[in-house]
Amino acid sequence: xxxxxxxxxxxxxxxxxxxxxxxxxxxxxxxxxxxxxxxxxxxxxxxxxxxxxxxxxxxxxxxxxxxxxxxxxxxxxxxxxxxxxxxxxxxxxxxxxxxxxxxxxxxxxxxxxxxxxxxxxxxxxxxxxxxxxxxxxxxxxxxxxxxxxxxxxxxx
Length: 156
Known about the structure:
By secondary structure, the chain is of the alpha+beta class.
């Protein structure tokens, strides 16, 4: 006997995770329409998919800026992806802006430190979680190449 898929749960899962409808559908089917179990499956599958993408060439991307409201702190972040199509995507653009804000706010010393920091808008997530979510969403390798932060009156 085949389980009837709950369309509302499918929509909810898609909205909450940003993962494709087909993967959301598969996760709901395998979890017997259990939303929390489906999310766990997506995370598990995501980790496996992300590992496959890590060695792919990232020759496209964009540079993102953040200027603090007081005009005394600024940051630049170079993020790379595989295709120009993704680099122009509004969600990729938003991710870059969020990471630039994170750099300005937290002043990390290295990329490793940055990706392991709690995300300032949601301390339950790390920057690495945001990056992994983006890899799943876009199906491409995405990475932070470099960043710089300036503060008025300080040495770089």
